[in-house]
Amino acid sequence: MYRADLALVGFGNVARRFAGLLAEQRERLARDHGLQCRVVGIATRRHGSVFAREGVALDEALACADSGRLAAAGDACADAFEVIDRLAATESSVRVVVETTTLNIEDGRPAITHVERALAAGCHVVTANKGPAAFAYRRLRGLAAQHDVCFLFEGAVMDGVPVFNLVREAMPLVDVSGFRGVLNSTTNHILTALEDGEEFAPALARMQAQGIAEADPSLDIDGWDAAAKAAALANVLMDADLTPHAVARRGITPADASAARAACARGERLRLVATAERGSDGLVRAEVAPRTIAATDLLAGLRGVQNALILHTDLLGDVAISQLSGSLTMTAYALLSDLVAVRRTLD
Amino acid sequence: MYRADLALVGFGNVARRFAGLLAEQRERLARDHGLQCRVVGIATRRHGSVFAREGVALDEALACADSGRLAAAGDACADAFEVIDRLAATESSVRVVVETTTLNIEDGRPAITHVERALAAGCHVVTANKGPAAFAYRRLRGLAAQHDVCFLFEGAVMDGVPVFNLVREAMPLVDVSGFRGVLNSTTNHILTALEDGEEFAPALARMQAQGIAEADPSLDIDGWDAAAKAAALANVLMDADLTPHAVARRGITPADASAARAACARGERLRLVATAERGSDGLVRAEVAPRTIAATDLLAGLRGVQNALILHTDLLGDVAISQLSGSLTMTAYALLSDLVAVRRTLD
User: Fold this and answer.
1) Residue B38: helix, strand or coil by DSSP?
2) Using CA atoms, how far apart are residues B338 and B99, in angstroms rounded to an integer?
3) For A289-313, what is each residue's pLDDT tens digit?
């Protein structure tokens, strides 16, 4: 049985659901995976940060964070870095930083800095943030290897549906030469709503009301979210060295309504498709753009918040994995599955 | 670095392609997974069986088997059991029986007997045969656990596209409550050919000519292949205790041509769908039958030899994995990926 001490950096919806899921799955984690977890630190942007060597009072933290009194749950810390440093200073055999701050599409910070600080201090990192893998994968992978810890980010693409863990764990020896995917739920919801005769603005508003669209809708609409996912996938699965800014990017606008409807009338579909391929020069090029595709294309069948990724491989031809529903639990589960992946490296 | 000694039980197309793939991937297997493999035994039904402690001459075996002179490749053995026993008697640290005999839909023998003999003797087993997991999973799982060895069968469903390894390795803690899938390539090819205006018999003949249809076409057409896969999936992923004979089963006939075309004309599709669900009594019921489904259903988009499996889960909602092409290499790769999975248990 391993005992893992966790510091939650970022304490929004995903981290809170993760904390709940951790409690719900406590027995199975211990029985099936020999893992006991305890949250010893929480860092928030607006409600302070705390650390408690013997574990924070999580119920209290969940209640307090809303009212700005998180401090009651442990010793006050100046910021996320102090929480990480205090975790690193413990003698716990398994120290994990769970990073769930929001994506900064400019340069991926401060998430990258949190990850760097944690890895360099010998802590494992699991994150649902796309930034670290999209902006700095090679450096962080090297740092993790140097300190013999894990850097995992299953939640960066398609929530908890396995993509990175799928290829790493279940497709050994397979070379990924490219991919095509529908990776952004908000734009796919809007495009299918347009096909059904709805208008752009109310379809977007519904995604925002449901908490599925990013707070800044341009991250979704302008293709930034899909571009960050494409960069992360290319970096990890194809050993590329891209950032989201290197991904050729075109999003969707209300003007695409007529194109979506015309495609549908022709028996085709308009989808925001992310692609990557390795050129004859060995370099990986990635792109996000609305594409008209045949109705028989697996991506055309994706409606609403559904996502899918088609991997082009050498030994398995084209393989697709599809996320047919979406929920906060699925994103939180991504962190939990990464935690189990960390556990598997410990024997 | 681990050195694995392999005995190939069954030496048809899949095993021969596996032998080739093993040679092609030798360097990556050693570099990425610390595994060196050597084939020390081969058992065939019609061309004799051989064992050679220091490794059979594989090139010679590949050439000889066709001409019935396999004996030149090593010491003659009476049958598969003697090959397995001789492998088990070696002091190799990693002994693996690679079982690729054809499915016997009556009772899964002799594949089950081969697997039993190997596991009981402390050898790992990887197999592309559906029989063992479809007819005797619980018993063989227990036997493997008792002798602390692996019993793996990724190739039993969707060739090398990960299904069993996907759930076991990349979806920890997830409970599978049911599934729907198109799992048989021959019938799916025929149904889509019917949609395109072709006739049943020539579409079947093409699958047989390509070596995709089973030698006995009734295994495909009558739904037995899909039923065996459904039983294996239910047994492994849902802890059921089914055999293919317990799966409610209806195949396809030339009379389904009009239903396939009528569905298509209505914007729907006819597909041979395998399903399983757990009833309120806790028992798992599985079924294979032609079903009319909406064109937007992920299964409706599968054409030709494409397969897909939709898993109903607690933590991840519905997740689908799709095989978008098919080849002998993909089946052979299934055995290779299982071999890597065996390797991962050795540290």
Assistant:
1) strand
2) 12
3) 999 999 889 999 999 999 999 999 9
Instruction: Tell me how far apart the alpha carbons of residues B207 and B214 are, in angstroms, rounded to a whole number.
Output: 9
As a whole number of angstroms, the distance between CA A39 and CA A64 comes to 15
Task: Name the pTM for this structure.
Answer: 0.96
Q: Which backbone phi and psi does A311 adopt, to 5 degrees?
A: -95, 130
- A298: nearest CB among B322, B329, B340: B322
Of A160, A319, A330, the CB nearest to B322: A319
**Cβ contact A324–B320 (<8 Å):** yes
Helix axes B131-146, B111-120, angle to 10 degrees: 10
Rounded to the nearest 10 degrees, the angle between the axes of helix B200-209 and helix B185-195 is 140
Question: Residue B319: which of B84, B197, B162, B121 has the closest Cα?
Answer: B162
> How much of chain B is helix, strand and coil, in % rounded to 5?
45, 25, 35
Check B315 against A160: CB less than 8 A apart. yes
Name the residue among A274, A276, A259 with its Cα closest to residue A307. A274
**Tokens at residue B50, please?**
């051989």
In whole angstroms, give the CA distance from residue B327 to residue B305: 10
Determine the Cα–Cα distance for residues A341 and A162; give it in Å rounded to an integer: 12
DSSP H helices, B183-248, are 185-195, 200-209, 218-221, 224-237
What's the start-to-end Cα distance of chain A, in Å? 10
Angstrom distances, CA of residue A310 to CA of A293, A321, B160, B323, B332: 14, 7, 16, 10, 21
Tens-place pLDDT, residues B227-264: 999 999 999 999 999 999 999 999 999 999 999 999 99
- Tell which residue, B221, B229, B217, has the closest CA to residue B253: B221
Cα→Cα distances B131→A212, B19, B158, B335, Å? 44, 22, 15, 15
ipTM score? 0.96
Pairing of the two strands A307-313 and A176-182: antiparallel
